[in-house]
Amino acid sequence: MLVVGRNPGEYVVIGDGIMVRVVKSNDGDLRLAIEAPKDLPIWRGELYEELFPSKDAASSQAAERKPKR
């Protein structure tokens, strides 16, 4: 897992077609704008965990096994 700090207006790019931009940050609240191909599903975390519980567990286990850099 990569953890980065970003300020409003800054962004990160994932692969060739995904951009995540911080658009608002007030009192600990954070708003993200996500640009991605239309055919790529984007799920809120709590909904993803509800719909795909085994995938979430598998990704958590993989992250725990991954060596820290």
Describe the structure.
By secondary structure, the protein is of the alpha+beta class. The chain has one domain (11-65). It has 2 helices and 3 strands; from the N terminus they run βββαα. It has helices at 45-51, 53-65; strands at 11-14, 18-26, 29-35. The protein has a 3-stranded antiparallel beta sheet, with no helix packed on it. The chain is globular, with a radius of gyration of 14 Å. It starts with 10 loop residues before the first strand and ends with a helix.
In short:
With 69 residues, this protein is α+β, with helices and mostly antiparallel strands. The chain has helices spanning 45-51, 53-65; strands at residues 11-14, 18-26, 29-35. A hairpin with a 3-residue loop joins strand 1 and strand 2.
Helix content: 25-40%
Mean residue pLDDT: 83
Taken together, the total number of domains comes to: 1
- Structural class of the helices, strands and pairings? alpha+beta
List keywords for this structure.
single chain, 69 residues, three-stranded antiparallel beta sheet, 3 strands, 2 helices, alpha+beta
Please write out the topology:
Layout lengths: L10 E4 L3 E9 L2 E7 L9 H7 L1 H13 L4
Antiparallel strand pairs: 1-2, 2-3
Helix pairs in contact: 1-2
